[in-house]
Amino acid sequence: MSVNTRSVTKDELALQKDYSNRVKQLLNNRYDGKKPLACVVTYGCQQNVADSEHIKGMLDKMGYDFTEDRQAAKLVIFNTCAVREHAEDRVFGNVGALKKYKLANPDVVIALCGCMMQQKHIADKIKESFPFVDLVFGTHVVHKLPELLFKALTSNRRVFELPDIDGVIAEGIPVKRDSDSKAWLPIMYGCNNFCTYCIVPYVRGRERSRQVDEIVREFKQIVSEGYKEITLLGQNVNSYGKDLEPQVSFSQLLRMLNDIDGDFRIRFMTSHPKDCTRELIETMAQCDKVATHLHLPFQSGNNRVLKAMNRGYTREKYLELINYAKELMGDSLSITSDIIVGFPGETYEEFKDTLSLVDELGATGLFTFIYSKREGTPAAKLDDPVSHDEKAKWIAELLALQEQVSAREMKRHAGKTYKCYVTGKGKLGDNYLAARTDGNLIIEFEGGDRLIGTFQNITVTEPLTFVLKGEIEKN
In whole angstroms, how far apart are CA 472 and each of 182, 292, 413? Predict the structure, then answer.
């Protein structure tokens, strides 16, 4: 069982199913049996993508079809991200652009959900400045969408559902997946780390793990449906199971899933260096279905900055883990990471420590961001004397270095053969396909569309800067 985590009861889920049927009947009457269209717009991380797939699953049960054209939809839902200011600005701009459409089509429902809405100042702004928005709900009540939508459709009142709680776990919510080959599988929610720059613990709540049997059940269902790439999701997957009784570690969960019959690959994100263990690295090396790709954000290469960020590890500890992973997995390992440039108080000399870590790390890809102030976080109160223009110069220097590093790392794969999952069309030419290695590297090769959705052995013939060129192994 889970300690201090409330699970949504069967009675509560039955109530939502009843509301789902009521919405379906209402829509059927309102639109003379024709299915109305819904448009779900997703911002942010893979967890938001997974949430949107559950939202679509519920909407499908309520009788909606789907479109990407916002101005053809009778329901538009924006699933928002609060991690950076740029994402918030995009949401405000795109919601505002629907004002005329809403005025001309008053039966359209415009809704906002996700992390942005869990912040009071954002919800207040929506309430005051966007009166044409009908429904706003937070991260902890996604499972109540049928009830909330029914109220929005019938009450002639705006509906705001933003409870200030640590969150719940709701099982059995229907899913409508975006891909035929790749599936997201949340294993836990929330975060306990409270990095000083990060809003996630405030909007997603404390860490809460799904029960092992529920994860295994859903994983087997995903495999039976033919999915080949399954990504386990959590704000910090390394903390999985710490709130369960008896405790189950993330490494133990990976081994259980690896033992399930089928031809598939397991990926996961995101790992936190503070909680990443040698046991996890050994599990990755020993489990044949677990991808040898480690996304391990280090954020800064300077120990003083890491301490100010409340990251809970040092540069030395991070490199110790990386070197152990390289020792066990060799060239099959691919490392990616996140970096924040210009954290409040960071000097250029301290930033140079990040550059040196990038060079030593040998990552095949980086997700880099200029620090974005988040209201309500400790870092928002710190002095930040370096200008945005200066930080932009720093990040340009970082990206130029990473381009060199990536090209260097890609050369190590020349002449080697990897089992790859063919994901779709490539970009190197009309007859090229793209495939992904266990280590998350992209190899493009010439081949027919019949290979899409299959595993193939591909030999690297030419390493480029961010992609590999290869040839399929002949049987």
Answer: 22, 21, 15
Q: Are strands 334-341 and 293-295 parallel, antiparallel or unpaired?
A: parallel
In the prediction, which pLDDT does 87 show?
Answer: 86
How confident is the model at residue 211, as a pLDDT?
A: 95
Tens-digit pLDDT profile for residues 76-98: 999 999 988 888 999 999 999 99
CB 302 within 8 A of CB 348: no
The CA radius of gyration of the chain, in Å to the nearest whole number, is: 23
CA nearest 118: which of 43, 205, 31, 55? Answer: 205
β-bridge partners, 469: 444, 462
In terms of Cβ atoms closer than 10 Å to its own Cβ (0-12, 13-18, 19+), residue 33 is exposed
Per-residue pLDDT tens digits for 406-423: 999 999 999 999 999 999
Contact 462, 469 (CB under 8 A): yes
For residue 304, the number of C-alpha atoms closer than 13 Å in the C-beta half-sphere is 10
Cα torsion 224, 228, 233, 239: sign: positive
Q: Phi, psi (5° rounding) for residue 69?
A: -90, 105
Q: Which two tokens stand for residue 249?
A: 């570690």
User: What residue ranges in 296-395 does DSSP mark as E strands?
Assistant: 334-341, 365-370
Counting other chains too, the contacts that 404-409 makes at CB distance below 8 Å and 24 or more residues apart are 405/358, 405/359, 405/361, 405/362, 405/363, 406/363, 406/364, 406/365, 406/465, 406/466, 407/463, 407/464, 407/465, 408/362, 409/362, 409/363, 409/364
DSSP 143: G
User: 254 with 292: CB under 8 angstroms?
Assistant: no
pTM over 0.70: yes
Determine how β-strand 208-209 pairs with β-strand 188-189: antiparallel
Q: What tokens were used for 340?
A: 């924040």
Cα 397 from Cα 403, distance rounded (Å): 10
Yes or no: say if 219 and 186 are a contact pair by the CB < 8 Å rule: no
* Residue 239: partners with Cβ closer than 8 Å, 6 or more residues away: 188, 192, 207, 250, 272, 275
DSSP string, 239-278: GTTTTBSS---HHHHHHHHHTSSSS-EEEEE---TTT--H
Q: Which residue bears the tokens 């059995």?
A: 172
The span from the CA of 447 to the CA of 451, in Å, is 7
Q: Buried (b) or exposed (e) across 332-347, using 16+ Cβ within 10 A? A: bbbbbbebbbbbbebe
Helix (H) or strand (E) holding 358: helix 348-361
> How far apart are alpha carbons 218 and 143 in whole angstroms?
17
> Cα torsion for 80, 83, 86, 87, to the nearest 10°?
-20
